[in-house]
Amino acid sequence: MSSMNSTSSPVSVFLLLCFPGIQSWQHWLSIPLALLFIVALAANLTLIITLYSEPSLHEPMYYFLGLLALLDLVLCTATVPKILGIFWFDWTVISPTACFLQMYVMNCFLAMESSTFLLMAYDRYVAICHPLRYPSLITSGFVTKAAGFIVGRNTLLTLPVPVLAALLHYCSREVIAHCICTNVAVTTLACSDRTINSIYQLAIGWTLLGSDLMLIIISYGFILRAVLRLQTEGVAAKAFSTCSSHLILIAFFYSILLVLIFTNKLQKQIPPDIPILLNVLHHLVPPTLNPIVYGVKTKEIKHGILKLCGLSKMATEKH
C-alpha cells in the first residue's frame, strides 16, 4: 500500500534536465547564450527608448516595431534566466505553478509576435499597393485597435494550453527532459490521458501561427505583383528595400519554428538535444536579431539611436 501511495501522490516540483546528452559540458553553451541574452536585452531596450524619445519616430509603422521589441523582451526574460541558472548554479527545480506560467507566457507571446509580423506585413501592403490611402488607413487609432486585438485574441486562445496541462495528474515522474516548460515536454510526464491537451495545442498552433503565416504570404504576393508592375526606374528597388528587413525576420522566425516542428516529429531519428536547442534558440535568436536588423536597415531608427547616444553630430560631420 505504501508503494502504491508513493507512486500515485502528485509531484510537488518539476526538475528541468535541460540537455541530457551534453550535461558534462553544457556550461560552455551558457557563454554564447548569455552573450545573446545581454545583446537582446540591450538592443530591444535601446530600440524602445529610441522610439519613445524621438518625436519623428512617433508613427504607426514604428509603433509595430516597439510592440515587437516589447514582446521580445518578455520572451527572453521568461526563459533565458532560468536556463542560465540551470547551467551555472544547477537550479533545476521549478514549481508546477511557475512551470505552467512559463508555458503560458511562451505560447501567448510567440503567438503575439507572429500576429505582429502579420500587422507589419499589412502595413507594407497598404504602403506599397495603396500609398494614397495609407495615411487614412494606418493611423494611431488603427494601431491601438490592432494591438488590442492581438493581445485579446492570443491571451484568451492560448490560456487553455497551460490550464489543460495543469489539470492532468502528475503522479510519479518529475524530470522534464528540456530546458523550458514546453507543453509537450511537461505533459508527457502525466499519468492521465493528455489527448485533449495535445489536440488543442495542435489546433491552436495551426489556427494562430498558421493563419498568420498564410496571410503574410498573401500580403507579400500582392506586394510582389504591385512592385513588378512598377515601370519607374528605381521605384521597385526602393519598394523591395523597405520590405527586406521585415522579410528577413519573418523568414527566420517561421523557418526555425517549422524546423522545430519537423524535428519534434522525428524525435526517434535525431538526437534529443537538437529539438531542445532549437526551442531555446527560437526564444533567443529572433529577439536578438529583430532590433539589430531594423536598426541597421532603417535609416530613421539608425539616426534616432545615434542621436540618443549623442553621436548624431559626429555622424553628420563625417558626411
From TrEMBL:
InterPro entries: GPCR_Rhodpsn, GPCR_Rhodpsn_7TM, Olfact_rcpt, OR51/52/56-like. It comes from the Eukaryota. It is a multi-pass membrane protein. It is found in: Membrane. One of its GO terms (biological process) is cellular response to lipid. Keywords: G-protein coupled receptor, Membrane, Olfaction, Receptor, Sensory transduction, Transducer, Transmembrane, Transmembrane helix. Residues 43-294 form the G-protein coupled receptors family 1 profile domain. One of its GO terms (molecular function) is G protein-coupled receptor activity. GO terms for cellular component: plasma membrane. The chain crosses the membrane at residues 34-52, 64-89, 101-122, 203-227, 239-262. Gene3D superfamilies: Rhodopsin 7-helix transmembrane proteins. This is Olfactory receptor 56A4-like. The lineage of its organism: Eukaryota, Metazoa, Chordata, Craniata, Vertebrata.
